[in-house]
Amino acid sequence: KSLTILNLASNQLVNLPEKMFVKMPNITRLSLRHNKIQTLPPSIVLATKVSFLDLAQNSISQLPKDFCQLT
Predict the structure, then answer these.
(1) Using the 8-state DSSP alphabet, how is residue 10 labeled?
(2) Contact criterion met (CB below 8 Å) for 34 and 7
(3) What is the DSSP string of 17-70?
(4) Which of the 8 DSSP states describes residue 25?
(5) In which element (H, E) is residue 6 found?
(6) pTM of the predicted model as reported, rounded to 2 decimal places
(7) For residues 32 and 13, is the Cβ–Cβ distance under 8 A?
(8) What is the pLDDT of residues 23-71, one digit of tens each?
(9) CB atoms within 10 A of CB 52
């Protein structure tokens, strides 16, 4: 069985591993709320199954180029 829900809220994360979304292709719900994330890895565009993404209360100033292609 593969991981589909991942809650990393309130962990003081500064960044995410570049290959995070390559290694977890079945994530459908991802909470990164209340961390210190400033940028998202470009590989987030591979997270095509994500239907819920919580990035609230971070310091994100720029999104990856193809981020808007996620639906």
Answers:
(1) T
(2) no
(3) -TTHHHH-TT--EEE--SS---B--GGGGG-TT--EEE--SS---B--TTGGG-
(4) T
(5) strand 5-7
(6) 0.86
(7) yes
(8) 888 999 999 999 999 999 988 988 899 999 999 999 998 888 888 877 6
(9) 10
